[in-house]
Amino acid sequence: MTTLMQAVALFLLANLVLALVVAARGPTPADRMLMALLIGTTGTGILVLLAQTMHLPALVDVALVLALLAAIGGIAFARRAWQDVEGEHD
Fold first, then answer.
1. How far apart are CA 55 and CA 25, in angstroms?
2. Exposed e or buried b for every residue in 6-27, given b needs 16+ CB within 10 A?
3. Which residue of 50, 53, 56, 77 has the smallest Cβ count within 10 Å?
4. Total structural domains in the chain?
5. DSSP 72
6. Who's near 16: CB < 8 A, 6+ residues apart?
7. From CA 69, how far away is CA 71, in angstroms rounded?
């Protein structure tokens, strides 16, 4: 089971690298923000898998903080984008 979890963590890490490349090349800020959210959720998954595999419960706390930061970043981006759209109609 440990080998399977490590393989899944490696797959998620490859997904994370791909998301970083897309975030750097994203044509719009919305694309970049979606990739940042993907990085947050994928990083959370990797940390939880590693916490379970390596028997390090402190990594779960780090994963929860990362998930919270990703959610706050997404909300902040959405609020700013929404305000920009409302400002164009005035």
1. 37
2. eeebeebeeebeebeeebeeee
3. 56
4. 1
5. H
6. 39, 42, 43, 46
7. 5
Residue 31 makes CB contacts below 8 A (sequence gap 6+) with: 22, 23
- What is residue 28's predicted lDDT score, i.e. its pLDDT? 83
**Among residues 59, 63, 42, 43, which one has the least CA distance to residue 51?**
59
Token readout for 26 is 């994203």
Give the residue numbers spanning the domain of 39.
2-89
Confidence band, pLDDT 50/70/90 cuts, at residue 29: confident
**Confidence bin at 86 (pLDDT 50/70/90):** low
Token couple for 14: 């490859």
Mean pLDDT of 77-85: 80
